Amino acid sequence: MLISLVTETFYPDINGVATTLSQLHAALIAAGHRVQVVCPRAATSRELRDGIEVAGFALPFYPAVRLGLPASRQLLKSWQQNRPDLVHVATEGPLGFSALRMAHRLGIAVTSSLHTNFHTYMRHYRMGWLAVPAIRYLRWFHNRTALTFIPTDQQASELGGMGFDRLTVLGRGVDTRLFNPKRRDERLRAHWVHLSEVKPLGEPLVALHVGRLAAEKNLDLLIESFNAMRAARPDLVAVVVGDGPERARLARALPWVIFAGMQRGELLARHYASADLFVFPSKSETFGNVVLEAMASGLSCISFNYAAGCRLIRHGINGYLADCDDEAGFVKIARARAIDGVGLTGAKAHETAASFDWSLITKKFEQYLYEVVATHAASTWSQPKAVPGELANRGKPGG
What we know:
The protein is α/β, with parallel strands linked by helices. Helices cover 42% and strands 17% of the residues.
């Protein structure tokens, strides 16, 4: 098949969406498909074997995030000359909107993914009044595609209750060859201890947070949790990996914490595996790939019972969960782990993550695309908007 993948973010961007799409892109090509990537030009040059880069702009409140400008004419010309079998729209910005319009205009099968809870982000940027219009737009957008891929049954239930149709649960995977406990680096741990200027009584306990340092990530709770852990265990070492608009504020609030900046590839894997405990207070994720990466690296994770935490963690067995409305409980768990350690939960976490191999997920994705293309081809001879019951119900609660 010729598949056009339309996204506002792609490698070398560092975020969960770009990571997921890069895996799907590589797997489809390896399976013999041709994949055209349509995305905004990045600040860092990227090499696309088959792609279209369009003009874009940075969000004023978050310069690291770019959106593509509408590209209807460019897409129309490209797709008229070399018609895709399917268009997959991964983001709902101006570029995604124009791709959806052109796919419908040309009668091309189109699927989508919902990777970001934009409606929940609004309140973090003093735009809470936009939450309801955002939901309406997202519902309209995704209900005009044959399938919308989402990462968890929990999200399927929530979005189904809001009127989203044809939801298909497609999990997330992890590269266990990259993220695994064998990446543990004792020299890196010793370096962290040196920077922290602490004198551990025994083996140091290293708490880690990895992620985009932005308002929607519930970073005030990270501050509270790290400080509570430090108060309970003065020799605690804490490391933050990532960057974003909230980094300076976070560093001022946590002057004793090591800020390692953005890390990629093997260096990132070493940072994960060299820690002991992963602290993840976000409640705005659609999934949270970093939780799966941390678990694959052998870390015990503290998370809310939401998204990846809900899907992956069994409290007290391979990690620790707090109820979504219990931030005090989250801090209590973090403090207890600082005092008592993590036991065997990290090893159990690694065992859990080992079963989430990307190859299984990408094969499912490929099969869904085949089904959509076949259904679309059949519907052109009968009812253009009809969707088979099997596809229509897949991923819905009870479906």
